[in-house]
Fold this protein.
Amino acid sequence: MKTAIRESHLSLRGITVTYADGHTALAPTSLEVQHGGFLVLLGASGAGKSTLLRSINGLVSPTDGEVSVADLPGGTVSKRNLLEHRRHCGMVFQQHHLIGRQSVLANVLMGKLATRGSLASLWPWSKADKLEALAAIDRVGLLEKALARADTLSGGQQQRIGIARALVQKPRLLLADEPVASLDPATAQSVLTLLHDICKKDRLTAIVSLHQVNLARMFADRIVGLRQGQVVFDGTAAQLTEEAQSALYAKSSPANMGSQFDSPSQSKEFLPC
Ligand SMILES: Nc1ncnc2c1ncn2[C@@H]1O[C@H](COP(=O)(O)OP(=O)(O)OP(=O)(O)O)[C@@H](O)[C@H]1O
């Protein structure tokens, strides 16, 4: 087990999530995630992709199991080191979670609160902080928009700013929950290309949930397929045959999961990690 933790960036062992209403969204799930990999989570709506991502950064407390991170003091994520874990864990959301009436720069600086604590927002940002935020905005190609209101940007531009906000945190692990779900196909591909290129250049470990199988095939080093809370596929894009893809999105429920999974995914409130 120790060897696996040393070689992996992230180890999930028997992570299980049953929500307060009795829904088991994630059956016991174990995964070893290697350093610097670009792992894509696929699965139909309600399969448990967001639940898995949120279990990793502690936005959801697993009912059972543990998450271990190679470079985290203590190794296993617990209440004691959760904040430290989140400092190194950037998150990109489907709906950006930008504050529309604030400037792009102010939104990106929010990413620094993960490393400084929320009280930092009570004091003016230092010049060094602003320069770092501007550098992150430049990396996503939107420096000329730094002083524009966030709500004047297009959806694709807003998602680029969401990426810049995660980057300013200097994460080691980047989690992205359907980051391109609300974009048109061409914009989705260009935003995902940007995210992929940055992760590779900075050697970030990335776990990205997607609905677009074609994009997963294009960018993933590894695809993990979830179906009704269980891992039913784990392999490369080449190994995801048409048959495996059909099985991943098949409608019928596994016998042991019951009808609790028939309801559509509910909307959820996310918080930055
Ligand atoms: N807070 C919650 N309370 C109860 N059930 C929940 C909660 N959040 C999610 N669920 C349920 O858990 C299951 C998995 O949801 P989850 O959002 O993880 O799936 P998903 O694969 O990310 O779906 P989507 O692609 O639609 O976002 C679904 O049945 C969903 O309704």
In short: The chain has ten helices and nine strands. Residues 19, 21, 23, 25, 43, 45-51, 261, 263, 265-266, 268 surround adenosine-5'-triphosphate (CB under 6 Å).
